[in-house]
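HUMAN:
Could you generate one sequence with tokenized structure?
ASSISTANT:
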Amino acid sequence: MMIRVENLYAGYGKIEALHGLSFEVDEGEIVTLIGANGAGKSSTLKAMMRLAPPEAPLVSRGDILFKGKSILPLEAHKVVEQCKMTLVPEGRRIFGNLTVMENLHLAAWTRSKEEIAGNLERIFDLFPRLAERAGQQSDTLSGGEQQMLAVGRALMTGCSVILLDEPSMGLAPLLMYDMFRTLKRLNTESGLTIVVVEQNARLALEVADRGYVLNTGEIVAQGSSEELMRHSHIKEVYLGG
């Protein structure tokens, strides 16, 4: 077991966002967390990355284990460095006043020159558009290109686990499917473990191995993607009938 979230309670001040959350992620899996707005999906990812309050909820009870060891004592940069886990945040959060290449290099602080060169080659193979715009200021990119950059920046850390928060947000349908095909390719070809939070539940379940359904900070259903897509209540509420 690579990641185990155990009976996690966390919140923002007096507002509790997660109520005894427990789930697991095996190495090499794609796992999706689906649910309505306010279900606690983004809060879960932020807690896993150990982002500091008020950006992320403060864990009051429970644990987050990475390969059997608690990561609660770690700060976010240590999670990246020691666990090789990184986050593609909701809204991309690129540095708009920097170029594409500068954004990518900023994320490579744990990597050697040789590793940086290899990572860049891999990213430009996945996203040729980024290679074409390497010297372009990032806030002039289209929404789809900015999402490519956000994923590429995460990959520059040399991560073995990537957490993605709403990667399809604001993208045209064709670009959404392209992005998820790329994630599937990363999983299949590189063995990347992926945890993805996604409002488009059908799209997420089409590429994921397993899924968890969250409702107001609790897991209300879980299973393989096929099982969840056949579940009558989930079909009605999350998959459009």
Observations:
- Strands lie at 3-12, 15-25, 30-34, 58-66, 69-70, 85-88, 161-165, 193-197, 210-215, 218-224.
- The radius of gyration is 17 Å.
- Residues 85-159 form one domain.
- The chain is about 40% helix and 25% strand.
